[in-house]
Amino acid sequence: MAVNTDVIGKTYPATTYAVGREKVREFAYAVGETNPLYLDVEAARAAGHADVVAPPMFAVVYGAPAVAQGMFDPDVGIDFARLVHAGQEFEWGPLVVAGDEITTTVELADVTERAGNGFFVFQSTAVNQRGETVCVGRWSNIVRAA
Amino acid sequence: MALAPGDELEPLRVTPDRYLTIRYAGASGDFNPIHHDEDFAKAVGLPGCILHGLYTMAQVARAHTDAGGGPQSLRRLKVQFRGMGMPEQELTVTGTVTDVTDGIASITAHCEQNGKRIIRNAEAELLVGE
Fold it and tell me: Do B57 and A88 touch (CB under 8 A)?
């Protein structure tokens, strides 16, 4: 595919995600977590948290709406029928708990083409209501050659 | 907790059931039909519904937070998805500590299914104390 490298560096409007207790529990159950910090409000509070703690990979949930803007951007031109999620990196800061409001900004960090395959890397930065960076993500996608 | 170079993480074994991908789709918001629609998956050349790569990554993350004593221990995790995971077949996550510096363990981890590493050479940084 011919990739459009003019869009490298493009940013998207920030999205804000309100972390809900039952959403955290739903996610924790889905991925098989059993740590009571994720599931039991009393256990989380006893450990000094305001509410249930989001598992680290909950970063997918609060980050996805921001990243989706880039994935569906016609200027980027990702063909979903040929899309492969190639890699993912997260670097975490302070824990996220239910009740937090997480604001995520996304930049299209890189676009390259190799052997007809398009490589698209989005970088997300997620900040809580206190301005602390809770997660930086790099989302790598390949659009396979037609 | 004490971890030293060469130590292995406790292997994590899990067999996602037939409907796991539906629950994960709902929990994560990723409704790509290759994960829950058998006919669609086959129509695009897949053997059947496949696991979400990020679900598999979550199992790698869980092996680390279990070893590190909780969610605060996992500082960084980087994976590359090298193959498709399938429901109803066991996943095994393994990891080896390669370095411990200033209370942070560097770990190289893999996730295997049917003898194939669907995530290999994942890099993790785990807070383990001095």
Answer: yes
B79 pLDDT more than 80: yes
DSSP A15-73: EEEEPPHHHHHHHHHHTT---HHHH-HHHHHHTT-SSPBPPGGGHHHHHHHHHHHHHT-
- N-term to C-term CA, chain A: 7
Residue of A nearest to B59 (CA): A31
Nearest CA in chain A to B70: A35
d(CA A107, CA A66): 9
pLDDT of residue A82: 85
Angle (deg, nearest 10), helices A59-71 and B20-28? 80
- Among A31, A53, A88, the residue with its CB nearest the CB of B79 is A88
Is the pLDDT at A131 greater than 70? The verdict is yes
Query: Does the global pTM surpass 0.90?
Result: yes
Apex CA B53: angle with CA B27 and CA A23, to 5°? Answer: 15
**What rounded mean pLDDT belongs to chain B?**
95
Report chain B residues whose CB lies below 8 A from the CB of A84: 81
The ipTM estimated for the assembled molecules is 0.96
